[in-house]
Amino acid sequence: MTDIAPGLIPADARNAAREVRKRKLQAFLFVTPLLVFVIFAFVAPITTMLYRSIHNPTVANLIPDTLVALGDWSGEEIPDDTVLIQFAADMKRMANDRTSGQLADEINRALPGMSSVVKSTARSLRRVDDTEIATNGAALLIEANDRWADPATWSAVKAAGQAYSTSYYLTSVDLERGPDGNIVQRDTQIYVKLYTKTLRMALIITVLTILLGYPLAFYMAHASDSMANFLMVFVLLPFWTSLLVRTTAWIALLQTNGVVNSTLLAIGITDQPLELLYTQFSTILAMTHILLPFMVLPLYAVMRGIDQSYMRAAMSMGSKPLGAWYKIYLPMSLPGLSAGALLVFIISVGYYITPALVGGTDGQMISNIIAFHMQQSNNWELAAALGSLLLVLILVLYWLFDRFVGTDNIKLG
Amino acid sequence: MKDLGSETFLRFDDVKKSYDQKNLVVKGFNMDVRDGEFITLLGPSGSGKTTVLMMLAGFESVTSGDIAIAGKSINRTAPYKRNIGMVFQNYALFPHMTVAENLAYPLTVRKMPKAQIKDRVAEYLKLVELSDFGDRRPGQLSGGQRQRVALARAMIFEPTLILMDEPLGALDKNLREQMQFEITRLHKQLGFTVIYVTHDQTEALSMSSRIAVFNDGVVQQCAPPAELYERPSNAFVAGFIGENNFVPGKVTAIQGNTVQVQTDGGTVVAQLAEGLSEGGPCQVSIRPEKLFIHPTTHAYDNALTVRFNTRIYVGDFIRYYFKLPDGTDIIVKVLNDLSAPEFDDGAEAQLLWLASDCIAFPAG
Q: Could you say which of A186, A295, B21, B89 has the lowest number of CB atoms within 10 Å?
């Protein structure tokens, strides 16, 4: 029991407590709509994505009995006939349900080349009599395709049949589980390189926006109101035009017979058109342009609040302009710089549309591969794993930023 | 206190400033400042006083004319080479540094050895009575404390000249008086030269060796406080410094240093100001505290019949508002003692004063 000040009777304390409860309830009611929205539109999808990246029940649902029978298979030779017979029966059922295609896709991911094996086997087993399968299923299966006699095939089936697996995460960092269960490097190294490239490009874009945005924001913050407003229109102009239009404008400028190339040719700087579009260069260029306002706005807002007198004071005390900027102005504008850099970096790490339109193959970023796995290869689990990894990466970077710069050093205005 | 040097330390020679190539903000400013003087630039906002200060500090360029320190022109000297201390209205203390780091900044820039910096910072913190506050950030200090840190920071590198741009503007009345005392004390103790900008005349009168009254880009008068108050050289200064009554009239005769003026309430004798001509319109200025209400034991030369309007009880004195026949307001300040008279509304009264206490200026 805490001490009660003299003169405060229990009834007073109760009244005060009721008042506090009422305030808390009011505050909660104000945020409830947003809370509900965030749970439905953000927390739930993210959780589903995280779950999906480790959970894939497709194969387990298609051939549950075969997988049970495969449970105590040693893995070194062909499984028992009971397994093969059970699988043959499952294949026939799937051939008639028209679900064998799904199985083909899933097993093909575990062992490339299996798609056609599964499909042709399903076709040949479709019209076979049930009793025939029950007695002679194993032979029929191997007759349909001799790869069913290969233990590696059955390893693939068993691996694909696991409802919960970390294999998508392993794939997203270019690793896989070898036949003996050890984690080894995959033959094709794609994703680590892509993550590194994405981070490098995001970093370059962030640095470029700082180099372009800082002086501009500095000038705007100390210019007259009318001048600042005039320049602000130019900063915001990219915001007001559609993203697609801006990106298309870059295509018009940079393509082989575009404005830039024809100008360069006309004034004789080059004698053949430069490869400008569909490169990393064009992605970085277009994204720097698009993301510049995200750097300028927080910088401008913070710099507006820094009175001229700080720099003047530093100079009156004998500091040269550059030294005064470094010691006084930079630390004071750091909250805006941090906010801008963080915004630009995080947005560009997950950017999709611009690299997709002007990036070609060279300028693709991680989001484009995620989109590819969702739309073309239909490998949602891998897409989820790649996306989750991206999320973790950004959280780690944010944590590092907090450690070294401090999140209280972020200010948007 | 250091003796005021007889030589000119700082000289403004016909300094002009225009921002827009059309209008002059400062229209030919001349002034000689001796070493150790406390000069105040006083004037309404927009009168050009801050511009003069900024040109002196080097943050604004000089359009024409010359500013010289110790005989050398500083027109082309970069601000950071001028060795001028400055106190800003918002103090401009660096918020990301502690008080001690703020004070150390000008010394660090000058590459003074660390141990020496530490001693000097401690010395100046003691000087402004903030010895225990070295580790605080400016945000954790009160307004008066920030002001003292700003002062210490402007003095710590021992500049010969310190500029102050309305340094007390953000403080409340009590603190302001305390800081006026503080600034005067430091000025006497350390003997630096001060150029002080303010629009608060009380501040100017109580601290300065000389005051330059600005209006519309021109110095109206530059004189020690007492002279400015007692002998204003024109109607603007008379009206701007302290309170003043202006009685309109017509010059009837000029005799030596005095002038006879015909007003609505009768003929009065006043001191002569420049620019008066016989028969021309003029206004006679009289301070409210120099007027006495009949009957009085004070000597007087002039008398004016007026009507009582109202009186306001201020505390240590009472303000009486009278009206001249032509409607001009006349204010009289009377000490709050037994002699303070009571009047009925509209009652007639006689105001008395000495000819030497009033000046006739040409009507503007």
A: B21
Contacts of residues B128-136 at CB distance under 8 Å and 24 or more positions apart, as own/partner, are B128/B152, B128/B182, B128/B186, B130/B99, B133/B99, B134/B98, B134/B99, B134/B100, B134/B103, B135/B98, B135/B99, B135/B100, B136/B98, B136/B99
Q: Give me the pLDDT at residue A114, please.
A: 86
Question: Would you kindly state where each structural domain of chain B is located, as residue ranges?
Answer: 8-235, 244-362
Q: B200-232 pLDDT, tens per residue?
A: 888 899 999 999 999 888 899 999 999 999 889
- Using an 8 Å CB-CB cutoff, list chain B residues near A319: 80, 105-106, 109
Residues 6 or more apart whose CB falls under 8 angstroms from that of B345 comprise: B308, B309
- Between A and B, how many residue pairs show a Cβ–Cβ distance under 8 A? 64
Provide the residue type at B230 as one letter.
Answer: E
What distance in Å separates the CA atoms of residue A85 and residue A359, rounded to the nearest whole number?
51
Whether the pLDDT of residue A412 is over 70: the answer is no
Instruction: Say if B8-235 and B244-362 have the same CATH topology.
Output: no
Task: Determine the Cα–Cα distance for residues A209 and A345; give it in Å rounded to an integer.
Answer: 10
Closest CA to A189 of A204, A202, A170, A203: A170
Query: The CATH number of B244-362 is which of 1.10.3720.10, 2.60.370.10, 3.40.640.10, 2.40.50.100?
Result: 2.40.50.100
Least confident interval from A172-181, A379-388, B139-148, B206-215:
A172-181
* Per-residue CA distances from A249 to A243, A265, A291, A411, B30 (Å): 10, 20, 16, 33, 60
Q: Is there a contact between B59 and A312 if contact means CB atoms under 8 Å apart?
A: yes
The CATH code of the domain at B8-235 is 3.40.50.300
A312 to B88: CB separation less than 8 angstroms, yes or no: yes
Say what the pLDDT of residue A103 is.
87
Please state whether beta strands A183-185 and A175-177 pair in parallel, antiparallel, or not at all (unpaired): antiparallel
pLDDT in tens, B63-80: 999 999 988 999 999 999
Q: Residue B85 is nearest to which of A316, A331, A332, comparing CB atoms?
A: A316
pLDDT-derived band at B103 (thresholds 50, 70, 90) equals very high
The answer to whether residue B95 neighbours chain A at the CB level (below 8 Å) is yes
* C-alpha–C-alpha distance, residues A122 and A98, integer Å: 9
Q: What angle do CA B120, B121, B125 make, to 5 degrees?
A: 120
DSSP 8-state assignment for residue A39: I
DSSP conformation letters of A192-232: HHHHHHHHHHHHHHHHHHHHHHHHHHHHHHHS-HHHHHHHH
Distance CA A281, CA A254 (A): 10
- Sort out which chain A residues have CB atoms less than 8 A from B82's CB and list them: 316
Geometric angle at alpha carbon B72, from B69 and B73, rounded to 5°: 85
Predicted pLDDT of residue B1: 41
Tally of CB atoms within 10 A around A187: 7
Give me the pLDDT at residue B69, please: 92
Q: Check whether A2 has a pLDDT greater than 70.
A: no
**Per-residue model confidence (pLDDT) at position B335:** 86
CA angle A397, A35, A15 (to 5 degrees): 115
Q: What is the pLDDT of residue A1?
A: 47
**Which of the four pLDDT bands, split at 50, 70 and 90, describes residue A4?**
low
The alpha carbon of residue A344 is apart from the nearest alpha carbon of chain B, in Å, by: 25
Percent with pLDDT over 90 in chain B:
48
Please report the pLDDT score of residue A5 as a whole number: 67
pLDDT at A255: 86
Sequence-distant (6+) residues with CB within 8 A of A90 are A62, A63, A65, A66
B326 Cβ contact list (under 8 Å, min separation 6): B248, B264
pLDDT at B2 over 50: no
Task: Show which of residues 68-87 on chain B sit within 8 Å of chain A, judged by CB atoms.
Answer: 78-86
